[in-house]
Write a structure and sequence with these properties.
six-stranded mixed beta sheet; disordered C terminus; four-stranded antiparallel beta sheet; 10 strands; Rossmann fold; globular
Length: about 375
Amino acid sequence: MSETLREIAQQLKDADKKVQLIYAFNGVGKTRLSREFKQLISPKRNGNGDLEKAPLPRNKILYYNAFTEDLFYWDNDLELDAKPKLKIQANSYTDWLLTLLKDLGQDGNIVKYFQHYANDKLTPYFSEDFSEVTFFLQDGENERPDNLKISKGEESNFIWSVFYTLLDQVITILNIPEPDNRESNQFDQLEYVFIDDPVSSLDENHLIELAVNLAGLIKSSDSGLKFIITTHSPLFYNVLYNELNSKVCFLLERFEDGTFALIAKQGDSNKSFSYHLYLKQILEKAIAEKRVQKYHFTLLRNLYEKTASFLGYPRWSELLPDDKQLYFNRIIQFTSHATLPNEAVAEPIPQEKETVKLLLEHLIDNYGYWQEKKEDGQHA
């Protein structure tokens, strides 16, 4: 059943679950879904009628998405050759966020969290009014060295560190049952946390650690807060799936007519993500080292089967290239099911080795599981 993003946002709201985990390829509409959900929870204050008295969005929902990152921008001042600094766009959200972090004394925790995922010598320094941040590498000298412009990946890590530190404080404060006993009452009306693809620039080890830390933070929340997390990363999805006890899982799809579907995923269709990555790594290594053997066809078939199962295809062969679907199906069937001794030990011919490479690339290029580049989001 196809729906609009607003209808899907309403579905997520009506579900009334503590954690809803959503997988979607890049470009499908995760960020737009987060915006629709935010608008649904807290409509814009446009000064017309009752909306003029509507609560600020920050009072009802805390969100992290691409728009959150856009609130941070570089002032290079190339004409004057000034030192680069990361400025924080002033609006009601950032003013509130940074004032809270300052009042709660959390700038030191932001630095520690950021350095853990970036570089323990790379140090962010907030201006006194928290309107801008400069970065420098500590070199052991007393005098502070020149400012640096950090990479885009490091910048994303820093912005996530700001959000995560705030989220940690929110959960800690709301876990105190009596509002009068809380350090701050600015979160008392908060109902939802929406997180869209936190940090895609991390290596696998740090991404796993981030997912484990986030899951632990969510599990520690007992105030009634509800969490919605969307991602295009199968690894991030898989770790969260295994770490979070109480959650419901979905696949978000977009169709050619611009409508969407939120498909519930049950049981093993979620657990297969780790194995997807493992099979892919084995095949890529064999191809790179030019050591493709007969058994790699069995692994390739297994990878196609698990991908088809997750995406809801009745037959894995439907994922093969359309123009040669029958031909490749026969090759994989014959090679992966060979039983005679001479078939089991025979070295694949060059054309067969090339077939493994071609079909692995076809799966990756057309079904989006491991792509970091932006997809157009067509139905797989």
